[in-house]
Amino acid sequence: MTRKAAILGAGVIGAGWAARFALMGWDVAVFDPSPTAKATVEAALDRARASLPALYDSPLPPEGRVTHAADLAGAVRDAAWIQESVPERLDLKHTLFQEVQAHCSPGAILASSTSGFTPTELQAGAQRPGQIIVAHPFNPVYLLPLVELVGSGETPRDLLAKAEQVLDSLGMAPLTIEAEVPAHIADRLLEAVWREALWLVKDGVATTGQIDDAIRLGFGLRWAQMGLFETYRIAGGDGGMAHFLRQFGPALKWPWTRLMDVPELDEALVQKIAAQSDTQSGAHSIAELEAMRDDNLVSILRVLKDRNAGAGAVLRGHEAGLALPAPDPDTPAMPVTLDRQVPVTWVDYNGHMNEARFLQAFSNACDQLLHWAGMTPEAIAAGHSVFTVETHIRHLDEVQIGDRIRVKARVIEGGGKKFHIWQELWVGDRLCATGEQMLLHVDLATRRSAVPPDRIANWLARAKAAHADLPWPEGVGRAVGQRA
Amino acid sequence: MTRKAAILGAGVIGAGWAARFALMGWDVAVFDPSPTAKATVEAALDRARASLPALYDSPLPPEGRVTHAADLAGAVRDAAWIQESVPERLDLKHTLFQEVQAHCSPGAILASSTSGFTPTELQAGAQRPGQIIVAHPFNPVYLLPLVELVGSGETPRDLLAKAEQVLDSLGMAPLTIEAEVPAHIADRLLEAVWREALWLVKDGVATTGQIDDAIRLGFGLRWAQMGLFETYRIAGGDGGMAHFLRQFGPALKWPWTRLMDVPELDEALVQKIAAQSDTQSGAHSIAELEAMRDDNLVSILRVLKDRNAGAGAVLRGHEAGLALPAPDPDTPAMPVTLDRQVPVTWVDYNGHMNEARFLQAFSNACDQLLHWAGMTPEAIAAGHSVFTVETHIRHLDEVQIGDRIRVKARVIEGGGKKFHIWQELWVGDRLCATGEQMLLHVDLATRRSAVPPDRIANWLARAKAAHADLPWPEGVGRAVGQRA
């Protein structure tokens, strides 16, 4: 069932929301009278299409339809989620919410991207205060999972629960905050760093480039995977957190930070920072920097997913709901065992998908088939698995980054110790590679070949029988360099 | 030439320095009278051996010898680098430096890991003040590249330049700070965040787990690859940094942070944080958390290296100096084309090196051979390259994470459009896999086969001739499932 989201205000944040909703299959109605709104949304959609699907090893739902509404009423009508991302002026938001509530469904979620205002402030004077909540995302919204979710005493708990469900379904990580404080949590931490950084630049202690290096070559790497407290817990060693705090306590009183007041952001400081930033990053356009940032984030998020750590655990949970449907083993057709977009991390110096990633695709696809056959994490934990003993890959055509690849599989031999599989990798109607593999069922305790459990043997034997009458694939049993 | 480092104080930081120096080939003398010092250093060495080499696709130099000195004089004698990491008490450091300078070479670098004191404070009363500098690293020292390097007016510039060279050679990223301020740069930013976080916990706004999620699911991901200013530059869009600052300026005056004073870290707050931290992380021992952190950092650093971004660019620069020596193509022996440790990111659910990583190893090794033959980045930029058309891999034995693998290559056909290569992957004296590949030289403009440039053709033809009389490898020309 396609659902509709209304995006009110399409700057960087609103456009990011639009892209996230659309790529997760929602229809999106954008309302922003600015003449640049369409271009901003299109740019965000392009960046999201190049990055968000690349986080997943399964296909996303079909993209929703993005339209630009001529008036607010049309945008919010029938919307299940209404996201406000207009400038941070309370009077503006109040006026907007009044008009929204005159036209939207009372059951819709009306969420604000505000970083500064509390729900109570936003709800003041509203027709239905309980409908308005804070859902504060982080740029780029289509890649970063965090959303700070805040309600007030007026907010029904089931509305917050519903909001959490929707955000989960978008692949995001709602962090529901019980207390209303200005700037929620993350921006308070960011503000603190920002002020200190301004002092360091103003006083000539460091340039913007040096401060950025001090972050991304040191603690920034730590914070991509563990936060502040868990990191310090480790530093405290086996003495534990209380030990660390008692040791660290005295240092807290040292006059280290300049944060006792706020630096005057006068024109001289603005110019100083702008000039240093030009020196640091001016060689790249904003679009180039955005692409670099997104490619870096995709790369980091993908390895965190492999490790099931931090934001990668969020991705894993979401991906579990995107798995391909299990085929009936008796169907006389090669099942689709992999369906995915080629991520940027799979590129090589020839600008296309690297040869090793073909084997990764075949390996993942084969794992999917075996999983359907019964080689579940539980079966593996019980000591059953397969080891590949031989592989023959033929590259028939190039595959590009961003291409959607599909792998189909034929069971040539299966049901006993040996498992012989034929795989084809397609982009649309182009056969780009074939992979022929011989695998052995093994006992993980002895690391030697073994007969698979009945359930797995039976499934593979049925698939072999169902595939037996399909045309014999061209290329099976071929050695390297051998002609047809 | 092996050089010697003296490590004075072997807590978490000192032990991390010892591991970094030793794994980069330095002999290390540790001086720390604590009864736990040996165990701390051994644990750091174990973690470093499991992680630091995994960052590189080339072998590190042979590990240096780590000894524990009975007295300070013995530790610092003949040391080229002396690193002090004792507790943060100025009187303690002054006493130590006096004794060090009585025994060390005047040409040695005497660096302090202090996070709080300035070089001028450290140098007070010293025999040779100019010899003492700050080299402030970040935990884990054996993985994070950042080192804040600070001197005083007494510090000779060439000593700082020498220190930068040494840190570069250790794979670290020295950030030389011109001004002396308490806590340098990074810890000022960290302190600001820490204080704000303490307020949030104390006031019951958020738990330690929520604050950690607010970091690692949002801005922490950004900061692993770009810092504060570059991230905000992007947020400013094409209006540039000055535009962003003018827009952001007013918000800076909002009463968002509680940092106007320092929260009282009384026993109640200590217990509150400790209990929340237990809830958040108590299921894992510190050793487990350290291993998770290190595996995550290795994963993140490796993808940043692929993208040449942030800390990954530091790794790339360092790795360039670790490349294998180019062989003479006329030598009648298979050259070693890859020599590396198997990183944790190459594991699969069977607990060993995944099959796709065998092809990655063969692919990288083949690229190395072609690079020696003249397929340089310049040649590729000029439109010359190779595409793999066929691969046959036989898995003869398992390879484990942490194993040191070596690939050897034989040119079966080379010099014309076709390039036929035979590769063997060894762990010690175990042949674990063979890879037979057929590649085509291509013109990258037409994506079609082409005759390689003379230089490359000539090198490969010579290698083919030199390998021609070697024994014919068992397994060449074999199809999947075909017996000898």
From TrEMBL, chains A, B:
Residue ranges occupied by any 3-hydroxyacyl-CoA dehydrogenase C-terminal domain in the UniProt entry: 185-251
Entry annotated with the keyword Cell membrane: no
Keyword Cytoplasm attached: yes
Keywords: Cytoplasm, NAD, Oxidoreductase
The EC number(s) this enzyme carries: 1.1.1.108
Gene3D superfamilies, per database record: Hotdog Thioesterase (3.10.129.10), N-(1-d-carboxylethyl)-l-norvaline Dehydrogenase, domain 2 (1.10.1040.10), NAD(P)-binding Rossmann-like Domain (3.40.50.720)
Record localization: Cytoplasm
Residues the record lists as binding NAD(+): 9-14
PANTHER family assigned: 3-HYDROXYACYL-COA DEHYDROGENASE FAMILY PROTEIN, 3-HYDROXYBUTYRYL-COA DEHYDROGENASE
Subunit description: Homodimer.
Protein known as: L-carnitine dehydrogenase
